[in-house]
Amino acid sequence: WSQGDPRKVIYPTDSRGQFCGQAGTPLEKKPLLFYFNILKCASPLVLLEFQCPTTQLCVESCPTKHLTLLKAKLSLDKKDQEYYKQYCKEGTNFSKMSAPEILREGLCPAMLIPSQAFTRRCLPALGTLKGVVVVGNETTLDDGVGDKVNATDLLDAAKKSNVVVEARQVAMRIFEDYTVSWYWILLGLLIAMVISLIFIVLLRYLAGVMIWVMIVSVILVIGYGIFHCYMEFANLKGDPGADVTIKDLGLQTDFSIYLQIRQTWLAFMIILAIVEVVIILLLIFLRKRILIAIALIKEASRAVGHVMSALFYPLLTFFLLSMVIAYWAVTAVFLSTSNEQVYKVFNNTECAYSRDTCDPKTFNTSNITAECPDAECLFAFYGGETLYHKYLIVLQFYNVFLFFWCANFVTALGQVTLSGAFASYYWAYKKPDDIPAYPIFSSLGRALRYHTGSLAFGSLILSLVQIIRVFLEYLDHKLKGAQNKCARFMLSCMKCCFWCLEKFIKFINRNAYIMIAIYGKSFCPAARDAFFLLMRNFIRVAVLDKVTDFLLFLGKLLIVGIVGICSFFFFSGRIKAVEEAAPSLNYYWVPILTVVVGSYLIAHGFFSVYAMCVDTLFLCFLEDLERNDGTAERPYLMSNNLLTVLKKSNEPTKTVD
Fold it and tell me: Which of 223, 278, 447, 605 has the fewest CB atoms within 10 Å, measured from its CB?
């Protein structure tokens, strides 16, 4: 933190390592970076990430016209000389020195070309005129030293910067769409939240009916999607250009073009048909287990109804996760900007010292200038040769590891808190009289007072696996150019194994936290008990638990489907009643996609509480079956509905006369 400087991320730096546009410095009014010879830059990516091997200056504005140094020197118009002088090094005696002397000393660029500011850098203002690449309506430019430069050379030097310009235009159009539709997007997300709340409330009273309505609705929604895709596919038959394939069309910045070809709608139709068939087959083969799952969801609905404050607990989790993410991001920025300025030798001719590290203060008095007259000591990048800088990547890995650990701890705290509240409902002999007055606060207090060590230990195990996965991805990135197929194969196998291990540990941790909330045990005994309890009931776990997860997923899918279809018809202007109210958009899929993703996250937030309730009640249900037998001494504590579905019963309590 003490070595970090976030200004290195915000401001571009000139050849001396000074920040362009930084407040309180002489360059405060010069926010843009200008390159003496843009042809030496390989691509825009080099401009953004590394130093281009040419002199760079901070300037107030980018050049707007083509002008060579020789023309500026010979011009009788003082304005041309003053205009050119602002793109020369500070202290240059422009009027007394000749053009060859200025170029030999590297004080000014040989020519200026029309440029535009992009990410605070002056890049050539490339365009097209009748299919020909031009710069300022010119196809060739005088480079100031007697040669001609084609506009296509600038295009190659900028690494097809027309793609960057198009990407920038797309980004601007998307931004414009957000500015005119943000309130409609918020309204759509609000509707998604209201629908989720209504869904939860209806589950409280009509769980069985709602589940079957939800299943049928999902099938109908997907069925309508298949029908709509087929109608679009059929309507495009015979239209000119509609039979073009996606492969032949290639990548287009105007995504609406894809909706004008039949293959797009055919692909959508096939995908939806596959999803529809899979859902129907699952429902047919799991129909008996669905009845038990519905009974479990009904019980979960009653539990959530008695612990309504649980629906708002995800807000606390979101707030804590936001703090963790903010701390990790700020620390990562400070670490990545804690390097020192590194200067390198740049030259045009052959030189033994080329790209060697140099010191700009002593460069002019060194023997390098004698052996390489045209060499310059320019700022290259931020780095360093100290022990700290060599192990900077280790500190970044440690920061990522801390992020995983803290994020997993926050998630674990939420799981234990919700599990404790719902377990207090299940094990209450008389519901709801024996439930604590404030179950969420009571459970949170127990978790913070007694179980922080267990939560930290469980989170640590998961975080170690996750950081190993990050390290393997880092190695994979480094070995992408390697030809050793055996090493790549082994690395892919390790990535797959650790992915499976992470999923397994998440499953074990989740159930261990439930056992911790029920019995107050430490992590290892709780994880062992949960694991063996689940293994003794493997069939129930494999089928029943996954069926409930599937049903809850259908609920999220239904909410997203309802909001997504409504937003599609609204933003595409297909609802005549509100056609005038719909905003005019460049890409109507931008607000639709935002609403769909936001709706899923909102629905997931509500249903995650429901899922935790179902998992807790499921483990309590298994424990109840093993510990009790329905006798008067050991009666089942599950609801009568569950007893009926399982065909079990409690013996009537004997009364003493």
Answer: 278
Beta strand pairing call for 121-124 and 115-118: antiparallel
Predicted pLDDT at 452: 94
Q: Which tokens belong to 67?
A: 């002008």
What is the three-class DSSP state of 434? coil
Predicted pLDDT at 218: 81
Say if CB 332 and CB 339 are below 8 A apart.
no
Q: Distances from the Cα of 381 to the Cαs of 57, 124, 421, 478, 558, in angstroms?
A: 15, 23, 55, 21, 52
Distance CA 105, CA 97 (A): 10
Instruction: Report the pLDDT value the prediction gives residue 446, as an integer from 0 to 100.
Output: 92
Contact 579, 169 (CB under 8 A): no
Average pLDDT over residues 62-72: 84
- The sheet with strand 32-35 has its strands ordered as 56-59, 32-35, 121-124, 115-118
* Helix pair angle (546-571, 287-306), 10° resolution: 80
Q: Are strands 111-112 and 67-68 parallel, antiparallel or unpaired?
A: antiparallel
Nearest alpha carbon to residue 38 among 95, 104, 109: 109
Distance CA(214)–CA(211), nearest Å, equals 5
- What is the helix (H) or strand (E) element at residue 570, kind and residue range? helix 546-571
As a whole number of angstroms, the distance between CA 570 and CA 564 comes to 10
CA-CA distances (angstroms) from residue 16 to 21, 84, 119, 361? 14, 21, 19, 11
| Phi, psi values for residue 11, rounded to 5° | -105, 140
Token pair recorded at residue 657? 């006369």
Number of H helices, E strands in the chain: 22, 13
- Tell me which of 122-131, 418-427, 525-534 is least confident: 122-131
Contact at 8 Å (CB) between 587 and 256?
yes
pTM of the complete model: 0.66
CA neighbor of 463 nearest in space, from 408, 515, 426, 390: 408
Give the residue ranges of DSSP H helices in 427-438: none
Q: Between 452-478 and 485-519, two packed helices, what is the crossing angle to 10 degrees?
A: 170
Count CA within 13 A, CB hemisphere, residue 487. 11
pLDDT digits (tens, 9 = 90+) for 496-509: 999 999 999 999 99
pLDDT at 406: 95
Q: What is the pLDDT of residue 459?
A: 95
Q: What pLDDT sits at residue 6?
A: 67
Helix (H) or strand (E) holding 293: helix 287-306
Q: Can you read off the two tokens belonging to residue 558?
A: 């239904």
What pLDDT digit, counting tens, does each position of 566-600 carry?
888 887 777 766 667 777 777 777 888 888 888 88
Rounded CA-CA distance 564/79 in Å is 59
Q: Where are the beta strands (DSSP E) in 301-403?
A: 340-346, 357-358, 376-383
- The two three-digit tokens of residue 151, written as one number: 């506009």
What is the maximum span of the chain, computed from C-alpha positions, in angstroms?
A: 124
Peptide bond into 432 cis (omega under 30): yes
Please, are residues 28 and 56 in contact by the beta-carbon 8 Å criterion? no
Per-residue tokens: 40: 């030496």
Collapsing DSSP states into helix, strand and coil, what is residue 307? Answer: coil
Q: What is the pLDDT of residues 242-280, one digit of tens each?
A: 777 767 666 665 666 777 778 888 888 899 999 889 888
Tell me the pLDDT band of 132, cut-offs 50, 70 and 90: very low
Going by C-alpha positions, the residue among 125, 124, 126, 87 that lies closest to residue 107 is 87
- Of 198, 178, 39, nearest to 110 by C-alpha is 39
> What DSSP designation does 584 have?
P
Cα separation, 299 vs 208, in Å, equals 11
The total of other beta-carbon atoms located within 10 Å of residue 71's CB is: 16
